[in-house]
Amino acid sequence: MPNKTFFWFFLPTGLAMILFIGLPIISTGIQSFYAQHDQVVKEVKKCDPFGCTVSIVVNNEETTKLREAKPLGKFNGFGTYVDRNHLAIDEIKKFWNETESFGAFVDQVTNLPFYKALIFTLTYCLFVTPNVLLLGFIIALSLNAVARKIRGPLIFGTILPMIVTPLVGSLVLFWMIDSQGIIGANIQNLMNDPYLSLKSSKTLTWITIIIYGIWHHSPFAFVVFYAALQTVPQEPVEAAIIDGASRFQRIKHIVLPHIYPVVTFVALISLMDNFRVFEPIIGFSAEGSAQSLSWLIYDNLVNEEVILFGSAAATSMMTIVGIAILLAPVLIRTWKEFKTAR
Amino acid sequence: MDYGLDKKSTSLKTFNTIFIIVWLLIACFPFIWTFWGSFKVRADFFSRSDWWYAISAFNTLIETGGKFTTDAYTQAWTEGEFWKASKNTIIVTVFVVSISLFLGTLGAYALSRSTERYAFWILIAALIFRAMPHITLVSGYLFPFFQLQIWGILPTTIVVLVAINQPFTLWLLYSFFKTVPKELDESALIDGCSYFQAFRHIIMPVMWPGVITAGLFSLMLAYNDFTVTALLLNQENHTMVPKIQSYLGTNQHEGNLMWAVSAVVSATAPLFMLVMFFQRQVISGLTAGAVKG
């Protein structure tokens, strides 16, 4: 296709992506170097029969004027990145010097908002992704062994958790697991502990959200693996059966190597999706004990008094760096393949 | 395919059946339970005293005189203004699907027919864009949108959703266009068609399955979106998913949980029907990128 034709065909979609994906990333970058204005204060002298006192009050008029004149805020350089709510460099130095044991130091650091969120996000990815692969693969193998006629409805049932939006999916589970729901109430009875509830324990909340993640993402892994299983050639499998290979050996030495590229694809996609975990935290109302990076950004953006653009942007930039690190191996591999291909 | 070589023992078959039944229960029961509970009153579905009330409908009988009540639905749709939210969702979904298909088919066709190096790089860039968490993009939008005073209205959200959707649509349609033989449009070009005519009259007619799949995924993205719609729309223009969240209540004001339950059912039912109808397309779309690439 000539370049000129390509240009006109591609222009609309290219423009949409540059304007609404490319530019926003740059806009986020710029915003992250600014912080909202401090309130303008003035000293007010108040005199009464007992003497004069000077108090400091907010000058609302001046503050509004300043905000209107420079809506982006004041230039802050990397200030937002290193403040207490983000990388917290000063605090970490302080903790390092003050705490006695390494354990206490780690404890202190993981209580800082950014590190807390980072640890939750990574834990979530670490537990959800492998389990999604495993469960998805087992369901695919198991459905593949069922008679063809009834597979349709079974597949429909299997993919339900995936097609609802994460907020709805987590709400539906939350209403059952909550202390007033069917599962929660029964667990209370079983454990004989009327105060046992999701909100009472941090570990319990984390486990619930991770289970939700597995429940929500496994169908995706299932669908891809199921399709890949249909392409496994029959001859080597039959040869293996004749040679006396067990079912497990057949899966390990024939099926898995065949679908290996698909496994990496699913792992990558689900890692990227898990890294942005955020809606389940709202669905499970778990803000108290579980916060993710995306949730921190959301929280800054829905702040009731002043929207913390700078803070949200700084967290966003660091999230993008995180995504870049996750994507790097794939990009390098694709680049190498591309180079050898030509 | 099966020549009877692969003999499964009875115990394996039983185990397999049990596993599938258990998994289907885990996957589907929450939805069935929510559907069932949406016809009860709050004191039953979220019972403080006995979870069995949700089945026996103890309080529902007292409060409404019947075992099932549609109060939650009528209230959410009228008083809770869920009708407005569903109207907004329909507007957003229809526009997002049609615009992103229009842009996506043109772009993906060009990518699939180009042999130049930049086509490869565009696809890689689209992959990177696909990985961006939506909330980081939203944090980039908010400030400029406030300044331009285009925040809160439906058209802005539609354009944003179309753009966010493009990378995935491009990849999906690209893999579908690749399966259409090049000779088809080349012969049209020799016969004197322009590229656009070849695209319009020769390629599009054989591309319908792919277009339907891509359309379904755009639809699911627009219909299910929470991040963009919750932050870029004002209260008045909220679509269904942010509306459901607003029923949940906050620390400051108590929500109406049964409205949320009935709204969840109302929002999920059409989606399930759609997927039931187009199951084959959904699955072919999910696997298009994976199996062929």
Q: What does this entry look like structurally?
A:
The complex is a heterodimer of chains A (342) and B (293). With 342 residues, chain A is mainly alpha-helical. Chain A contains 15 helices and four strands. Chain A folds into three domains: 36 residues, no CATH class; 31 residues, no CATH class; 230 residues, MetI-like (MetI-like fold), CATH 1.10.3720.10. In chain A, the strands form two sheets. In chain A, strands 1-4 form a two-stranded antiparallel ribbon. A two-stranded antiparallel sheet of chain A has the order 2-3. Chain B is globular and about 80 Å long. At the A-B interface, helix 1, helix 6, helix 7, helix 8 and helix 9 of A face helix 1, helix 6, helix 7, helix 8 and helix 9 of B.
Provide a short characterization of the protein structure:
Chain A has 342 residues and is mainly α.
List the helices and strands and how they pair.
The complex is a heterodimer of chains A (342) and B (293).
Chain A: H1 3-31, E1 34-35, E2 41-48, E3 51-58, H2 60-69, E4 74-75, H3 79-82, H4 89-98, H5 102-109, H6 113-144, H7 151-163, H8 166-177, H9 182-191, H10 202-229, H11 234-242, H12 247-275, H13 279-283, H14 293-301, H15 309-341
Antiparallel strand pairs in A: 1-4, 2-3
Chain B: H1 10-37, H2 42-45, H3 53-56, H4 58-64, H5 71-78, H6 82-113, H7 117-131, H8 134-148, H9 154-178, H10 182-190, H11 195-206, H12 208-224, H13 227-232, H14 240-247, H15 257-277, H16 279-292
Helix pairs in contact in B: 1-15, 5-15, 6-9, 6-12, 7-9, 9-12, 9-16, 10-11, 12-16, 14-15
Average pLDDT figure of chain B: 86
Class by helix and strand content of chain A? mainly alpha
Unreliable stretches of chain B: none
What radius of gyration of chain B results from the CA coordinates?
24 Å
Q: State the helicity of chain A in percent bands.
A: over 70%
Overall structural domain count of chain A? 3
Main pleated sheet of chain A? 2 strands, antiparallel
- Strand composition percent of chain B: under 5%
Q: How is the quaternary structure best described?
A: heterodimer
Total DSSP E strands of chain B: 0
**What would CATH call the class of the largest domain in chain B?**
Mainly Alpha
